[in-house]
Amino acid sequence: MHLAAFDEDIDPTEKFREFLQTKGMRLTPEREAVVTAVYATHDHFDAEQWVANLSQRGRKDGASRSTIYRTLSLLVEAGLLRRVARANDREVYEHDYGYPQHDHLICSKCGDMIEFANDVISETLEKVANAHGFRMSGHRLEVEGVCAKCLRPPQRSHRRLDMI
Amino acid sequence: MHLAAFDEDIDPTEKFREFLQTKGMRLTPEREAVVTAVYATHDHFDAEQWVANLSQRGRKDGASRSTIYRTLSLLVEAGLLRRVARANDREVYEHDYGYPQHDHLICSKCGDMIEFANDVISETLEKVANAHGFRMSGHRLEVEGVCAKCLRPPQRSHRRLDMI
DNA sequence: GTCCATGCAAACTGTTTGCATTCTT
DNA sequence: AAGAATGCAAACAGTTTGCATGGAC
């Protein structure tokens, strides 16, 4: 258990390096730029957001569009990121390392994503999966509706749909 | 309550016609071809499936790609169809009229979608939404994993990923 | 020298849209 | 004649890929 606990504590970049090693790949400066950027804040994001940001930084500090996409997929494989939902036709990512499993209420007005964790749901899913002889590896639950902020109508909402 | 009960019983085409009327639109032969095709069996499907099928039928019996896409969106608006998931980058639809709310186990090997209904989940979601002052209008729950059939390995699976 | 990784531009895919034409009323 | 609907082809957006170049060991 000590090892497991420790394993949970090493930082994402290190975890990524380990993952890459097992596949005979290297943690290049570009890849590192992506992990660092993405893990700088615990926010939902999509690929293009980081393309806009990272692709104009100088070399060794940023990465090109293709590298970003390729790296995000690797990070998902590595268990560091999770594809949670889709907003505006874009895949939305979030941290999947050191954070408890949770789902999202997605406001169809402002696009805000509200996280919530609920054990009943995961337990129920386990049961349902078992009952069907299905080996569950994960799930994606998007609850659509309108958030509290947007329900108070007069004041216009400050967030726009395309801001995720 | 009588009206409601009756309303549940009229056939999808009629329901669609009513919906269109409220928007000043007509139930054209093309639109009818789409509803009929789509409601012929209670199966999951994607747009391209029907494009392949309907776009080569003679006029008045089929419809073009654009009309199909446009009609599917109308059917969703009308509450006749639901976008349930995404498989192979395609939006997957299913009937949303006369069928109880349910969710899906999606096999990542063969692509099979197993429906299941579970009250606990919907009740829990209600509670969670309320707790956040969120007005829920629906949800999308995709459970990923491997189905029972694909877990028995030796016999190769008969369904392919790209068959939905 | 070999293998991995990058960036660019082109390709791909599902879906949407502009537009000229046709149908309905 | 006005409005709505169609089909075609082009546009679109996000993502993926082929390929020539560059870097690490």
TrEMBL record, chains A, B:
CDD domains: Fur_like (cd07153). The keyword DNA-binding applies. Fe cation binds at D103, H139. One of its GO terms (molecular function) is zinc ion binding. One of its GO terms (cellular component) is cytosol. Its cofactor is Zn(2+); Mn(2+); Fe(2+). It comes from the Bacteria. One of its GO terms (biological process) is negative regulation of DNA-templated transcription. It holds the Pfam family FUR. Keywords: Cytoplasm, DNA-binding, Iron, Metal-binding, Repressor, Transcription, Transcription regulation, Zinc. Binds 1 zinc ion per subunit. Zn(2+) binds at C107, C110, C147, C150. It is found in: Cytoplasm. Belongs to the Fur family. PANTHER family: FERRIC UPTAKE REGULATION PROTEIN, ZINC UPTAKE REGULATION PROTEIN. Homodimer. This is Ferric uptake regulation protein. It comes from Planctopirus ephydatiae.
